[in-house]
Structure formats: C-alpha cells, structure tokens
Write a structure and sequence with these properties.
InterPro entries: Syntaxin, Syntaxin-8_SNARE, T_SNARE_dom. About 13% of the residues have low confidence. The chain is mainly alpha-helical. The protein contains 5 helices and no strands. The chain has a domain of 134 residues: Methane Monooxygenase Hydroxylase, Chain G, domain 1 (Up-down Bundle). The chain is rod-shaped.
Length: 240
C-alpha cells in the first residue's frame, strides 16, 4: 500500500532540511577558507523559502485532515509532533544561515543549544542539524555520519536477511508438515473405508445366522408336529 501523501511530503521536507544543513555547512567552510559562497547563498535562500512553504502546506493539510476526520486523533497528534519538530528545525536552519559561518567553527553546537561546544576538536566540521546530538555522532562530519548510518543499515539488512532465512525455513517445515498430514489423512480415509466394508460384512453375516436360526427353529417344530400326528394315528389304530 502506498504511503500517505502527507507523510510523503513530510519526508521530502525532511530531506530538503538535511540538504539545507549540508549546504550551510559547505557555505561556512567556504567563508572560512576565503572562497566565494554567493552561489550557495542564493541556493540556500531558495531552499529555505521552499521549506517554509512546505511546512505551511503540511500544517494546512494536517488541520484539514484532522477537522474532516480523515485520520484518527492519535495520528493527528503524532503528525503535529512531527510538524512541531520540523518547524523548530526550520527556525534553526534560518538562524544558522543568517549567522556568520566563522562563529560555528569553534563551537559546533552553539546553534542548537545556545551555549558553547561540547568537546568538538579543532578543525571538526559543524553539523547544524541535530538538536540533541548523540554521543555516537559527536565530533563527526556529515560524511562520517553517513558512513556510520550506512554501516548500521547494512547490519540491519544482515539481520533481516537472517530473519528471512529463518522464516523461509519455518515455511518449508510447515509445508512438509502439511504434506505429511495430507498423507496421514489419506491413510485414515482408507482405514475408514475398510472398516465400513468390514462392518457391512459383519451385518450381513449376522442376518444370515439369524435366518438359519429361524429356519432351524421352524424345522424342529415341524418334526414335533409330525411325531404327534404319528402318535395319534397309532393310538387310534389300537383295538378297543
């Protein structure tokens, strides 16, 4: 299922913000090294204006979707929190753009925290993006952070591959168990048919036995009657 349009626009704005942060970093580097950042400044102004428009559009569409109940209240709250973070980042990027790049070199976290740097060494490039920079990325340049993220993604991919292999093995085991059950069901069906045939034969033989018993009882009664008749005739023939 395709991603929600609001979330797509949000992700695009986040990527734009990351691009702005990297361009600000490059603009500041050029200022420190005596380069000419005029072209980057023009690009940054256009990008910041576009980000402002994107944030405004996200706010309007979120309000409309929430008022028309196209999303749940919990989802609206979650998106509002994302939007608030994005607004904060927009303000920080604007402040970083308007600040002299040479001020960011000795204290890379001044933009984010309003205080001095947190131990970044000399010559370390500033990263004006993270509000609360984690210990793992402290002192790293954008390139090093990207490499670290790629290593993490590769490790996650390897874990997903292992999980997929386990799931595939379980699927094959399930299929084998299903095939075994099918074979056992066929055997059970054969046994059931054999039992039904045997039961029918037993019923037939029982009926035959009953018929023989009935015939035997009838023959015995006939013999008794014949003997009685003979006795009566013999008695009647005696002289009086």
């Amino acid at each position: 299922m395709s991603q929600d349009l609001w979330l797509q626009n949000y992700d695009a704005t986040c990527r734009l913000a990351q691009e702005i942060a990297e361009n600000i970093h490059e603009r500041n580097r050029q200022q420190r090294t005596g380069g000419n950042p005029a072209k980057l400044n023009m690009t940054l102004r256009a990008s910041l204006q576009k980000m402002k428009q994107n944030v405004s559009m996200l706010r309007e569409t979120l309000i409309r979707a929430s008022s028309q109940r196209r999303i749940t209240q919990s989802e609206a709250d979650r998106r509002q929190s994302l939007l608030d973070d994005l607004v904060t980042k927009e303000k920080q990027l604007c402040a970083s753009f308007n600040r002299n790049g040479t001020d960011l070199d000795p204290s890379r976290s001044t933009l984010m925290t309003g205080g001095p740097g947190r131990g970044a060494g000399p010559g370390v490039a500033a990263n004006p993006w993270l509000l609360n920079e984690p210990e793992e990325t402290r002192g790293l340049t954008f390139g090093e952070i990207k490499e670290q993220q790629q290593r993490i993604i590769q490790a996650q991919d390897a874990g997903l591959d292992a999980l997929a292999a386990v799931i595939g093995q379980q699927k094959r085991m399930g299929q084998e168990i299903g095939n075994e059950l099918d074979e056992q069901n066929e055997v059970i069906d054969d046994i059931t048919q054999l039992v039904d045939k045997t039961d029918g034969r037993i019923r037939n033989e029982t009926q035959r036995v009953k018929l023989v018993e009935t015939k035997s009882a009838s023959c015995g009664m006939l013999v008794v009657i014949v003997l009685l008749l003979i006795a009566i005739v013999v008695v009647a023939s005696w002289p009086t």
